[in-house]
Design a protein that fits this description.
The structure holds 2 protein chains of 2 kinds. Chain A is mostly helical. Chain A is built from 5 helices and 1 strand; from the N terminus they run E-H-H-H-H-H. The chains are: A mainly alpha, B mainly alpha.
């Protein structure tokens, strides 16, 4: 009946990727939010089939700031990738450096985002077109804002004291979520800025 | 057991009337009649309430440490089961006779009195059955037979613990190698999980092989505060959409407070920390 116990004292106290519980939580979150993005984009194109003139009376949003933000977003993928690599090796110096870079990119992005809102050339109460454009941009901004706050908190934590090893896992999962924010901007950018021109 | 058989019996009838209602030609006649009322009660009470009663009778000994009376249990089952069919089966017929849903009275010339009276008798029978059930629970809580750990000789892990289970569940986690671990015990236990801090074993999601030991955070007031903040945000959003914007600020603050580890927690965890293999 009784045999040798299963000794687990040698096991690590955390793990990366699919071994981490919060990785699954983040994945589930991305799945839900990705569905919301898709639903919002589908709404945009559905509304477009209901009217003859799209955009109704307004000129399409100014290309400049949206495109600038697309470039900033894609560029921020570089420090994000380096940060992700540094977390998996748990190199604290490199993690701190690329986290600060990530915060700076977020700030730049949010600044340009303010101008994007100012140059949408429509109002959110004026027409269905204006509402869905504002909804799409607000939806994505909410994600950028969430991830920026995450990044700031993790940066503060990494500078505050000697972190537990699993805080590197937290940072690596933040990187994964940041990829989601970057990649989701591409279809939303195409919808808001390019689609009304065709 | 009886309740689960009752569930099969009732839910199958409910399912079949559902198939009937899905037929367009029939539905155009039966839409908004008592046939639908009968169907949905067969589905909901048959599909959800009978199994709930079954589950309650099954786990009551585990929850309280005492057995329910089998004799009273059978009485309550038969009263509820017969009462249910006496109440709701005539409603099929009433629906076919044209009695519409959501009415509180009807003309005496409609000829629906007999079946409605029968349904009322059935409803009181259900009530009587539920009364017997409540009496059974109250009586068994005080004077029920002691259940012991596993009165059913069941195979699953909850029955390995004393009834009622202690808050910490297992003193040592058993090693499970079968879907019926109490029928095919491995005889092995897990050791090596730190006992002085909150820690639990985490396994691989696909193979259930022990993977790492999760060190849980210390107790904290922040989850409660964030729950208050979320409640405040949603209540404010009823009155103005800006409630979501301004309400998000306290939610963010409390979530950060929740996440931020205390110095004590970090130093404790660092003492127990074992790093995974890192790439070079």
């Amino acid at each position: 009946m009784s045999s040798a116990p299963l000794d687990v004292s040698h096991l690590p106290t955390y793990g990366y990727g699919t071994r981490s519980l919060t990785w699954w939580g983040t994945m589930g979150m991305m799945l839900i939010e990705g569905t919301v993005f898709l639903a919002a984009i589908a709404t945009y194109f559905y509304l477009r089939t209901r009217v003859n003139l799209w955009p109704p009376e307004d000129p399409p949003p100014d290309l400049f700031f949206g495109t600038l933000n697309l470039i900033i977003m894609l560029l921020s993928g570089v420090p994000n990738h380096l940060l992700s690599r540094a977390t998996h090796c748990e190199r604290l110096g490199a993690v701190r450096l690329w986290l600060v870079a990530g915060v700076l990119f977020s700030l730049a992005f949010l600044l340009v985002r303010t101008f994007e809102f100012l140059f949408l050339n429509t109002t959110y109460t004026g027409s269905a077109y204006g509402s869905i454009v504002f909804a799409l941009l607000t939806l994505h901004t909410a994600h950028v804002l969430t991830d920026s706050i995450d990044t700031v908190v993790l940066t503060a934590l990494m500078f505050a004291e000697k972190p537990e090893g699993r805080r590197f896992v937290d940072v690596s999962e933040n990187c994964m979520y940041y990829w989601f924010v970057i990649l989701s901007w591409i279809p939303i950018y195409l919808t808001i800025y390019i689609a009304p021109r065709y | 057991m009886l309740f689960v058989v009752g569930f099969f019996f009732t839910f199958i009838i409910g399912g079949l009337t559902g198939v009937m209602l899905a037929s367009m030609t029939l539905d155009s006649q039966l839409h908004d009649t008592y046939f639908v009322v009968a169907h949905l009660h067969y589905v909901l009470i048959g599909g959800a309430v009978f199994p709930l009663f079954g589950g309650f009778h099954y786990w009551f000994p585990k929850m309280t440490g005492r057995m329910l009376s089998e004799r009273l249990g059978k009485w309550s089952f038969w009263l509820v089961f017969i009462g249910f069919h006496v109440t709701f089966f005539p409603m099929h017929v009433l629906g076919l006779h044209g009695m519409t849903r959501r009415i509180y009275t009807y003309s005496p010339t409609a000829g629906w009195e007999g079946l409605n009276l029968l349904a009322t008798v059935g409803a009181f029978t259900i009530g009587a059955g539920l009364l017997v059930f409540v009496i059974n629970v109250l009586r068994s809580l005080r004077r029920g037979e002691r259940a012991g750990a596993n009165p059913w000789q069941a195979p699953t892990l909850e029955w390995a613990m004393p009834s009622p289970p202690p808050p910490y569940n297992f003193v040592r986690i058993p090693v499970v190698t079968s879907r019926a671990p109490l029928w095919e015990p491995s005889g092995r236990e897990v050791t090596g999980i730190p006992a002085s801090i909150h820690a639990s074993l985490t396994t691989r999601f696909d193979s259930a092989v022990p993977d790492h030991i999760y060190l849980a955070p210390e107790p904290s007031i922040w989850p409660f505060l964030s729950a208050l903040a979320v409640t405040g945000m949603f209540i404010a959003s009823i009155f103005t959409p800006w409630g979501l914007v301004w309400g998000a600020i306290p939610v963010t603050i409390t979530l950060i407070g929740w996440f931020w580890p205390s110095r004590h927690e970090t130093s404790t965890h660092l003492r127990y920390e074992v790093k995974p293999e890192l790439p070079a």
